[in-house]
Design brief:
Elements (H helix, E strand, L loop, with lengths): L2 E12 L5 E8 L5 E8 L5 H12 L6 E4 L2 H14 L2 E4 L4 H14 L21 E2 L8 E8 H8 L6 E3 L6 H4 L6 E8 L4 H11 L1 E7 L7 E7 L3 E8 L2 H16 L3 E7 L9 E6 L2
Parallel strand pairs: 1-4, 4-5, 6-12, 8-14, 9-13
Antiparallel strand pairs: 1-2, 2-3, 7-9, 10-11, 11-12, 13-14
Helix pairs in contact: 1-2
Length: about 280
């Protein structure tokens, strides 16, 4: 299976007419550069993309295109449909983001640089929304699991919904088996499967603690999809806030790795869904 990671968006560059330049950048998941091309903003459409993708492929089109930028998604989906290529919206395109970051410093030295502040992988995020009330379970708590137990515990166990990407497995990240991976457990009760299905559709990416600020409570915010954010819980209790800080601190030792586990109750006998997550 051939997978390409692609970004197509405007850069801090201008053409001779002073108009914005868009750049297409393609690389493989292992970081190998494949192709790049530039066009004026007026040319930035799916037809132009189809032509460039065919040129880059040299007769061997990919099976899957991964896209992390919301502004690129619709254009690449349209091009993908014309070429019968599946397009996946995902933030987990480390190789592509590395390529974009490398290029960012080069743009400033070009004669046609606009001089604007440029953050190549930053995505504007909307304010977090409240999690739908009809989905919320009975309660939640912080937890931690030794890194060495995660794969054995959740990869082979019969769980309806499991997301354990190979790239995020502790062993593949070089994390010692004794390191505690922090996470959050939601006891969904009768709504456990309903909540798990909604989360699977939303595609969890990270679950972060947002500290209390003046006039606002602290809480947990779930990042999903390409840029969506959801309020999982808010709290003012000092003990809960302390536990939340410890949860966030533990992520420093786990390379940002953490988990979200949904189960009906605290019996430990049945799991509904498990996601292994990582902050960038």
């Amino acid at each position: 299976m051939i997978t390409w990671q692609i970004d197509f968006y405007r850069r801090p560059l201008k053409n001779k007419a002073g108009k914005p330049i868009w750049e297409l950048l393609i690389c493989s998941p292992d970081g190998n550069f494949i192709y790049d091309a530039q066009c004026s903003q007026s040319q930035a459409n799916s037809d132009w993309l189809v032509e460039q993708l065919q040129t880059a492929a040299k007769g061997n089109l990919p099976n899957l295109i991964q896209v992390f930028r919301p502004q690129s998604l619709s254009l690449l989906k349209a091009a993908g449909e014309k070429l019968a290529i599946e397009v996946e919206a995902t933030r987990r395109v480390a190789a592509l983001k590395t390529q974009l970051s490398k290029r960012a410093s080069e743009y400033a030295n070009l004669d046609n640089s606009t001089g604007e502040v440029y953050q190549p992988i930053k995505i504007e995020q909307p304010p977090p929304q409240a999690l739908p009330e009809n989905l919320w379970g009975d309660e939640w708590r912080f937890a931690a699991i030794p890194a060495g137990e995660i794969e054995a515990k959740f990869k082979s166990y019969p769980i309806p919904i499991v997301d354990l990407p190979d790239a995020l497995l502790p062993l593949n990240l070089g994390i010692a088996s004794t390191v505690k991976i922090p996470g959050v457990i939601i006891y969904g009760g009768r709504k456990s499967m309903q909540l798990a299905c909604w989360l699977a559709e939303a595609k969890p990416f990270a679950l972060n603690y947002i500290p209390t600020v003046v006039g606002e409570s602290g809480g947990l915010v779930l990042e999903t999809g390409l840029c969506d954010r959801w309020i999982v819980a808010t709290f003012e209790d000092a003990e809960v806030a302390k536990a939340a800080q410890f949860y966030q601190q533990r992520q420093q030792a786990s390379q940002g790795l953490h988990f979200l586990l949904v189960q009906p109750d605290d019996s430990g006998m049945t799991y509904t869904a498990f996601w292994l997550l990582q902050n960038e």
